[in-house]
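This part of the workshop introduces the protein records we will be handling. Getting from the letters to the tokens is the skill we practise here. The record below serves as our worked example for the rest of this section.

…
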Amino acid sequence: MAKDPAVLFYTSDFLSSTFTMSDEQVGRYIRLLCIQHQKGKLSDKDLKNILTDEDIDIFEKFVKESDGFYYNQRMKDETIRRKNFTESRKHNGSKGGRPKTIEKPSGYAYAKPYGKPNDNLTETVTVTDTVNNNLKLETRNDTSVYSIADKMKMKPVQSQIDELDKL
């Protein structure tokens, strides 16, 4: 597996631990942390190339191992924590991971219908002939009040149009 390119960075902790440092010192400190993350540990040469004699506060944030290399304990802990988390995800993935959602084929009751639900239904419409005071019922398959009114040579009543529009 390739080197993990990331580590969790707790900004609040970092700001509180570097509050008394100058901007230049903060830059040197973060650079050393990044090098430690990439290489695993720091050599005397790494520290000498980056730190000056005035950077004692930064130098004290690193622990010297018996083999002569340096490390920051928090960076070491976070790198290990991240590695363990990544390994646990890898292990769970090898078991199959999270089950994939299965797409349900269309055609079942939960599928949305196409068109209006009552396109093919027969309707009975009441049309009032106000000239002759006749009430006529007509059964039809379409939803046009205008077609009935045209047959009767009269205008449809607006309330009838509104009722059909609701369907």
